[in-house]
Amino acid sequence: MELRGYSGCDLEIITNSGIKQVRKTAADISYNTRLSEQKRKQETVKLGKLRNCKTYDCGFRDGLYFFTMEYINGNTLAEQVENIQLSDMKHVVDCLTSHFSDFEKIDADVNNMFIEKIKQVKEMIRKREIIEKNCTEINESIQILENYNWDWVIHSQCHGDMTLENILVASDGLYLIDFLDSFYDTWMIDAAKLLQDCECFWSYRKKEISTNMKVRLLVFKDLCVERIVSMKNGKELMDTVYHILLLNLLRILPYTKTEEDYIFLKSNIASTNKKLRGYGL
Fold first, then answer.
1. Using an 8 Å Cβ cutoff, are 253 and 267 in contact?
2. Alpha-carbon distances, residue 258 vs 10, 35, 84 (angstroms)
3. φ, ψ dihedrals at 79, nearest 5°
4. Residue-wise pLDDT tens digits, 198-252
5. Which residues, listed in sequence order, are joined to residue 3 by a DSSP beta bridge?
6. What is the CATH architecture of 2-70?
7. Which has the closest alpha carbon to 114: 159, 145, 144, 138?
8. pTM above 0.70, yes or no
9. CATH class of residue range 75-277
10. CA-CA distance, 201 to 214, in Å (whole number)?
C-alpha cells in the first residue's frame, strides 16, 4: 500500500517475514540527507514518556535514500482527540509534555541562530508573490521577532514537528512519527507545534470542526499552557513559546499553495501578534 507524506516522501506499507513495516523514501535526491538525519533522530532521541517507532534497514533505491520502521496499528492523535475522555486528557498532555524541562543551559549562540532563521524566513516571504508586499500583520510580526531576546530558549532534545498528526495513539502508548531536523533543538519548538494545532487548528484547517472538537482542543491547549507556566520562569518560557509559534506560522507562509491557506495563516498570525502585544499570556 502506498501513501504520501506531507514532506513529499513516499510511504509504503510492506510485509517482511509476515510482519507489517513502513518504508519511507526521500521525495528526491536533495532530500536524502534530511531523511537520513530524521532516521538518526528517530533512533536516538528519547522524549520522556513518548515512544519511537523502531527502525530497521536503510539504503538507496534509484539514488533515493529510504529506511523502514515498525508499523503501528493506531490512529493519529489529531483523529483521536474527539474520542478521548476529558478526564483522560490530562494524562495525554502529561505524556506529551514529559520532556519539557526548565533546566537552564546557557547557549551564547541561541540569539544569533534565531535571528539568522528570522532573516531567512523574511527573505523567503519577500520572494513569494501570493503574499501582500505591505501586509501589516506580517511586517509587524517580523519586527516583533527581530526585536525579541531569545535567551530564554532552552537547549534540549526535541521531535521538531510535534503536530497532533505526527503522534499515533496505540494500545501501549503514544508513538512519535516523522521526526524533523530542526535549525535549533529545543522542546519549546515541540510546544509551539502543539499550540499550532490546539490553538490555531492548523491540522484541521481543511475540515469543519465541531464545537465539541474545539472545546477539547482548547482544553488540551490550556493543559499544555498550565504545564509550562508551572515551571520555573514559566511566564517567560510561555512567552518564548508563543514567539516560536509566530515564527512557525511565518515559516509556513512561503509554502502556501492556496489563497485559503494564506488567509488562514494571516488570520492566526494577526491573533498571535495581538496576544504577544498583550505580553504573551
1. no
2. 23, 27, 32
3. -80, -30
4. 999 999 998 889 999 999 999 999 999 999 999 999 999 999 999 999 999 999 9
5. 11
6. 2-Layer Sandwich (3.30)
7. 145
8. yes
9. alpha beta
10. 9
